[in-house]
Specification:
The complex is a heterodimer of chains A (120) and B (107). Chain A has no helices and 11 strands. Chain A is mostly beta strands and 120 residues long. In chain A, strands 2, 4, 5, 6, 9, 10 and 11 form a 7-stranded mixed β-sheet that branches. In chain A, strands 1-3-8-7 form a 4-stranded antiparallel β-sheet, with no helix packed on it. Chain A starts with a strand and ends with a strand. Chain B is globular. In chain B, strand 9 and strand 10 form a beta hairpin. Chain B contains no helices and 11 strands. Classes of the chains: A mainly beta (120), B mainly beta (107). Chains A and B meet through strand 5, strand 9 and strand 10 of A and strand 4, strand 5 and strand 10 of B.
Chain lengths: 120, 107
């Protein structure tokens, strides 16, 4: 059973940078890795997905502020979101994505999520 | 970007009921659709991928169908543990997008 664990600060000040890391128990290059967030009491928002190669795709609404990176030897991938505001307060989930061939089917394993509050 | 809508936004049902949730994409996505179940305070759980493929370990009372723009998640006989919020997600193209969710609660 693959396990993913988010880590990072639970409180970030407005205009600062939010940095989160996801550590994977069983990393494999055949999978994809990503981030999803959930605003309090609301639905899910796809943040981005990164391939083993380091190629990443991001939500256009966040693209100018977002960096997703991966470190396979450490079995980790990370999210960096700059210039945060209260609107970025959410539960942030990391997840594994799987697929067949060149396509992606969905997010099959998820971390427990980490609540990040943006407040001074 | 592909927009996803779901209906209804909420449904009240009883144990044993058949429940159907609809998801619609703003443009054709072939069969690149996944369904997730989320319970309060928990991470989402993958139920269905590629529109109709049951994820390993998911009870057979869950089924998915559809292609193109219209998709359906059906719970054939609702069980107490099925009361949750259900989301669809298109995986046809980046940026991936989720539907707004359908909450299934107790009647």
């Amino acid at each position: 059973q693959v396990q993913l664990q988010e880590s990072g600060p639970g409180l970030v000040k407005p205009s600062d940078t939010l940095s989160l890391t996801c550590t994977v128990s069983d990393y494999s290059s055949v999978y994809y890795w990503g981030w999803v967030r959930q605003f309090p009491g609301k639905g899910l928002e796809w943040i981005g997905t990164i391939f083993h190669s380091g190629i990443s795709y991001s939500n256009p609404s966040l693209k100018s502020r977002l960096t997703i990176s991966i470190d396979p030897p450490k079995k980790q991938f990370s999210l960096r979101l700059t210039s945060v505001t209260a609107a970025d307060t959410a539960i942030y989930y990391c997840a594994r994505l799987f697929g067949r061939g060149a396509t992606i089917d969905g997010h099959d394993y998820w971390g427990q999520g980490i609540l990040v509050t943006v407040s001074s | 970007d592909i927009q996803m809508t779901q209906s209804p936004s909420s449904v009240s049902a009883s144990v044993g009921d058949r429940v159907t949730i609809t998801c619609r994409a703003s443009q054709g996505i072939s069969s690149w659709l996944a369904w997730y179940q989320q319970k309060p305070g928990k991470a989402p759980k993958l139920l269905i991928y590629a529109a109709s493929n049951l994820q390993s370990g998911v009870p057979s009372r869950f089924s998915g169908s559809g292609s193109g723009t219209d998709f359906t998640l059906t719970i054939s006989s609702l069980q107490p543990e099925d009361f949750a919020t259900y989301y669809c997600q298109q995986a046809n193209s980046f940026p991936f997008t989720f539907g707004p969710g359908t909450k299934v609660d107790i009647k």
